[in-house]
Amino acid sequence: MPHPVGERLRCDECGAEIVFTKACPCPEREPKAHSDICCGKEMRSAGVSETAEPAPVEARH
């Protein structure tokens, strides 16, 4: 399924989110070219953000 720039997907189990900073061009057909899975379940749409700025990445030491 295509995802527009700024669309947010959220995992209901752990709260993780994906924000599309580039549109996903996958066509709406079966079988899907990919799945948006987290914690073993399909992530749900949390809407489209006005800005598609990537979230800051925390430094890991």
- The helix content, as a percent range, equals under 10%
Strand fraction: 25-35%
Low-confidence stretches: none
- How far apart the termini lie comes to 37 Å
What is the succession of H and E elements?
EEEEE
Q: How many strands?
A: 5
Q: What does the oligomeric state look like here? A: single chain
Based on Cα principal axes, name the global outline: flat
The value of Rg in angstroms is 13 Å
Q: Would you tell me the structural class of the helices and strands?
A: mainly beta
Mean pLDDT: 80
Give the neighbour order of strands across the main sheet. Answer: 2-1-5
Major pleated sheet: 3 strands, antiparallel
The number of helical runs is: 0
Summary keywords:
61 residues; mainly beta; two-stranded antiparallel ribbon; 26% strand; flat
Description of the molecule:
The chain is mainly beta and 61 residues long. The chain has a domain at 7-48. The protein has strands spanning 7-10, 17-19, 37-38, 41-42, 44-48. The strands form 2 sheets. Strands 2-1-5 form a 3-stranded antiparallel sheet, with no helix packed on it. A hairpin with a 6-residue loop joins strand 1 and strand 2 (17-19). It is flat and about 30 Å long.
Q: How would you briefly describe this protein structure?
A:
The chain has 61 residues and is mainly β. The chain has a domain at 7-48.
Write the layout of secondary structure elements.
Elements: E1 7-10, E2 17-19, E3 37-38, E4 41-42, E5 44-48
Antiparallel strand pairs: 1-2, 1-5, 3-4
